[in-house]
Each structure stands twice: as structure tokens, then as C-alpha cells.
Amino acid sequence: MTDVSSRLERVMSNESDIKVAVAATSLLHQKANDIRQKCISWRSYHSSQMISDRDFKFITLYEKVTAENRAEFVQQHAMEMAETFLTMLSTVSKDETIQYILCLIDELFLEDRNRVEIFHTYCSKHKETLWKNFFPLLLRNDEFIQNMRLLECQKSTRIWRSNTLF
């Protein structure tokens, strides 16, 4: 019982740490909402051959899908979606665009946590790990990208483990 009591005391004494963590998460989500409202010029990426025809067609179509229709769209285009998002994370260099793509991925996971499996399945089919696409983002100088990348990896690992262990 003393072990439980000492843990409880540590948690209670770290209340300020908890408040700081909640505030930081709230700020991250607010910034994510602001980023999601931005309009990325996919046409310029496409015309400068920074993204492929397939990625350009997919991302412009994806942005037109309403939240109400997204589940059906994701189900129909699951592997294409995973490929496009992961390819763009590794080929696009502008921080603002990487932030936007990470927000799209986060939105997918928030709507349905099991969508993480789409990305794991895609990577398994291509004999690569999902982490290969996210770890390089830690090397970027943008704090938002680093934090979003950590959140996505945390969500992906926790969801994947909970779905595969039981």
C-alpha cells in the first residue's frame, strides 16, 4: 500500500507538470487547427515535379471529401492514401507542407484510431517499417513537426499494439 501511496503523492506533487503538459497539448492542437485551415498550392508542387501525377490527383481529390464522406473514401482508397501521405512526407521539403500533411494524418487517426492499420498494412506490403517515414522528421528544426511526429508514432504504436496483442 505504501508503494501506491508514494506513487499517488508523486502524481499529486507533479500537478503543475500535468497542467504544463495539458497546456502544451492544447497549444499543439490549436496550431494544428490553424495549419489545417491553410491552403497548400499542390498545383505548384506538381508543376515543379515535386509530387507525382498520382499524388497530385489523390491529394486534390482527398481535400474535396467532406468529413461525412471521409470514412467511405478512406475505405475505397486506403492503400493509395497511405502511399501518398508517406511519399509526400519523405519528398516534400517545405516545413509548412509537412505540417499540413501531419495534420491530415492526425485528423484521420482522430476520426478512427483503427486507420493506423492502413499505414501498417501498406508498409508491410512494401517490406518497410512505418517508422522509416516518421523518424527523419525528428531531424527537422520545426518543433511542431517534431511534436506531431512523436504524437503520430505514439498513437500508432499504442493502437497497433492494442490491436495485435489481444
Automatic annotation (TrEMBL):
Name listed for the protein in its UniProt record: V-type proton ATPase subunit H-like protein
GO MF term (any one): proton-transporting ATPase activity, rotational mechanism
GO (cellular component) term, any one: lysosomal membrane
Alphabetical list of InterPro entries matching this protein: ARM-like (IPR011989), ARM-type_fold (IPR016024), ATPase_V1-cplx_hsu (IPR004908)
Chain ranges passing through the membrane: none
